[in-house]
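Researcher: Going back to the complex we discussed earlier. I've cleaned up the inputs and rechecked each line, so this should be the final set. Can you rerun the prediction on the complete assembly and write out the structure?
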Amino acid sequence: MTDLILAAEQGGVILDHPAVLAPFIVAIPLASAVLLLLFGKRIGKPAGVIASAAVGLAFLASVVSFVEVLSFPKEMRGWVSETFTWIEVGRFQVDANLLVDPLSAVMLLVVTGVGALIHVYSIGYMKGDERYSRFFAYLNLFVAFMLILVLAENVLLLYVGWEGVGLCSYLLIGFWFEKPAAAGAAKKAFIVNRIGDFSFLLGILLLAATAATLSMGAINAEALNPNGPGPGISGGLATAAALLLLGGAAGKSAQIPLYVWLPDAMEGPTPVSALIHAATMVTAGVYMVARLSPVFEAGGDLALMVVGIIGAATALWAAIMAAFEYDIKRVLAYSTISQLGYMFLAHGVHAYSAGIFHLTTHAFFKALMFLGAGAVMHALAGETDMRKMGGLRKAMPITGTTFMLGWLAICGIIPFAGFFSKDAILASAWADGQYVLWAVGVFTAFLTAFYMSRMYFRVFEGPLRVPEGVHVHDVAPTMAAALIPLGLLSVVGGAINLPGLLTLEHFLEPVLGESHVPAGLTPWVLGGIALLVAVGGILLARSLYMTRASSLRRRRAYARIPWLVDAARNKFYVDQIYGYTIVLPGKAFSGYLANVFDTRFIDGIVTGTGRMIARTSENLRGLQTGYVRNYASLFLLGVVVILALLLLRVMFG
Amino acid sequence: MSVDPGYYLVLAGLMFTIGVVGVLTRRNAIVIFMFVELMLNAVNLIFVTFARQHGTIDGQVLVFFVLVVAAAEVVVGLAIISLIFRHRVSSNVDEINLLKR
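Model: Rerun complete. Updated structure for the full complex:
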């Protein structure tokens, strides 16, 4: 405490400590959501402005908190904001405490910053929708839950945010629930997440039971120091806990085997996709693994290896599917899954800060590209098939240009944001000696550059091609207001963590530990390889989509790998496999329970009991006289008998 | 000045006995109802007496419960009686013996 005051005097600090603002960061969007849910209809059109302003305010508060965190010396950056006692039963007490430290400060900026831009964009995008205010209420709620998740100091509060974003994703993916596909996609997202959530719940219960505390700081301390005075978290128990947590992260962050919900989630309005893919929801798993990284470290090589392998496999798997997809939003969805795979790959090689770095830059360019795709759909009357588009950059200069920035960023072209963050992950994999993971990462980088270029060339370059009877128009001002800042961030976002300076990684060190980056020439060579591979991917896409001989070459290339094309276009039949192995048996079993077990057995017991009693009482009716006075006298007689017995007991007992 | 608690108990006993006899002998449902109330209040009196005697408030609290329950009971009971009256144009309990086979 005295240290704090000392630092406050030295650093010229405005607030007592940054955590003072934390409750407001959550409360403002939450209050706005409640307001819009209750009075949205009456508020009408200003709802979008209110919602955007709420997230904007939260963003300002986050910036202030972030600057405050920076103004303190490194070893003191970490504050708990005590809000209120949430649960109190006997000696068990849970406080709804919020934690502000470098990690949550960075996440706050991403969530509220990108979230606010998406809100602004939605004002234009959702104009004229009949549930306009409701949409913004859900968006606000989504952001609020994500902020709870990010700021939570204990695992229970984290779980509240965790489930909250799950609920909001359900509401928003199914926002146009009149469409059966949207309703189905919402259900799918919710149920698949539920599976992951169950695993996550088991994980946090295991941790809480072992460490005898819910505080993540304390749990991490036990994991870091298993031989200390506390119970300690280590060995097989830590591995089990880490794997259970990973199951939850795989659900939220769409990793193998639970990624299937994310492509279908494209049924929601496009800003929702941007929000889910960039600022909220899918980043939750990545954040959680980083936040509880000591548990994963304590889980040993096995736990981290599983994390790394799942990440690398997901990155590759989704990139292959993206390369053959024609739906513009689905390509972006697979690309998100693939990029999330990179983040898990980073976590798997101890490079937690590299994972968070990629999360941040990915939030910039993926939000940008989703919003760009939304602008394209808007201009083309809801068309999402890339085969029916072409040459749109000239017709939509703002969208086309910003999208190009995002494209270069995700391809990993220097000096755009994606180059630095992807390179940080690949370099960490190399430094950790995981050459196989590194190779998979590099190959995925090639595929990424290929499929993103394929998309960019098809949609924005070449001759103008639009569906019939569509008049192409560029974005509304509010939508441009979101696209342009995101475009700039996609260009300069990498600067937050330049090689050699390592600002972000140094900043995150107090929470995530030191990062190991190879020394000497190695990082330059690795970066060069990644760059070459990216350029190769772009050139391949160019030759297959931009030249006169393209369609012929494509046909020839597809003819060489017909099985792969077929399988990838059918999403590797994963939905069918899940359908036959899990959904169908599940439906059959619940059908049996509902139609046979419930009606025959459960209802049998209930109606049988009823019938038995009815029959018995029918027989007992013979005893009735029907005269009230008879019954009353019997009461009296009974009372007298009981009293007499009591009296006898007192006298002789 | 305080009254000997015995008197209260005797009074309560008398009230209760009157109630019992009334319930057993009268035929009009409404009148029976009133006797039931008399019995309830006799018990209330005993509660209060003992509460006073022991210097605790448990008994007084119980009286409140009894009052509330009695109020509820009156509502339901009167509703039943008035329905029966509408149906049979009588409130004579001896004429109501549906339960008998």
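Model: Worth noting: Chain B touches chain A at residues 20, 23-25, 29, 32, 93-94, 96-101 (CB under 8 Å).
Researcher: Good, that matches what I expected from the previous run.
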